[in-house]
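Lesson 9: reading folded outputs for more than one chain in a single document. The general rule is that every protein is listed as its sequence immediately followed by its structure tokens, and records are never interleaved. Here is the first one.
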Amino acid sequence: MATVTKKELITEISDKTGIKHADVALMLESFMEVAVNHLAAGDEITLRTFGTFDLRVAKGKLGRNPKLPQSEVMIPDRCVVRFRPSRELRSRAAVVPVHKVNAANGVNGM
């Protein structure tokens, strides 16, 4: 398994649809910009067969500076983006062989 870049996605979508690379790039950039704006406004984004992006509050916690482990710093509550995959995406991911994922992540099988 490899990391797929935005450029590779654009090429694949362009090849599959016959739409020019520049037009696909513009659409993808526009989608990401609109999605970020909606999430920043606190909206939820649902793509039915893909999943849902929303904001959740990560509770504050006590943290430490690795360079000064004796000093404690309070990390405040903050909003984080959460992705919940759709049923379809979860079922398709469930059939991926575990050894492929382990190999991609550098995990030894035994």
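And here is the second record, again sequence then tokens.
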Amino acid sequence: MIQISTLFRLLPFFIVLPLLAANPPLPLSVTDAAGRVITLAQPAQRLVSLAPNLTELLFAVSAGDQVVGAADYSDFPPSARKIPRIGGYDRFDPEAVIALRPDLVVGWNSGNPAPLLDSLEKFGLTVLRTDPRRLDDLPTVLEQLGALTGQTIAATRAATAFRQRLAALRERFQEASKVRMFYQVWHQPLMTVNGAHLISDVITVCGGENVFASLPVLAPVIDLEAVLAANPEVIVASGMNEQRPEWLEQWRAWPPLTAVQRDQLFFIPPDLLQRHTTRILDGAERLCALLEQTRQHRPSSP
């Protein structure tokens, strides 16, 4: 028989139980890059990623096992290569996405075609639109993905580590002298990024100055004359894979360029800067080191 004193100690427990049953967990809500509130009744368990960087971010918050479909070239981490494909980020197949019955689709607002994203929503799918433009946006995206997938602990850990690493980079190079640089995305057509692009924020963190920051288009096509007129001190190219692109050497045909005169033609693998994931800080550290090398090898003033 339960003693009276024991019964009184257990009384709060018996009161809380019906309260928990009457108050189920609140819906999960985040505000996406399009300014819309995305709400789920419970954490998503079937995810479709519409870009390789988004697939990588889902793995970064330990939600990789929940991804049932992903865009082409979703190859990091290696286990992502086993996920069924739904097409390229710029031409994915809406019917393939719908057939996977996802309870959350993670999209790229400035990369996925808007009509395709709209078609998924018209069918009734929930689409989270992401679009990090500054390094500070990435840990926020991690936290949103963690909240909507039930992986808040892993997401918080990843976001905190990213913020700490970014803060250390900023502190190290905040007083560094400016280095005027041209970031070359591609050669035919000749492409770069403007000041609103995430890569330009990396350049700023490293004490660099994007010579095409003022252009109105996010990833503008430019001409040779524009680069010659800007006369960057450094040219950094990306390319398509882990190999330094041959077309980077073509700038040596223009010896008046300061970057050519000082042999400041550099390469950083595109996955480390052009995929907007936590690995972008690996690319940032490489870029910061290259710009610091440039500062150290500047000609002495007469």
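What the second record shows: The CA atoms of residues 73 and 268 lie 19 Å apart.
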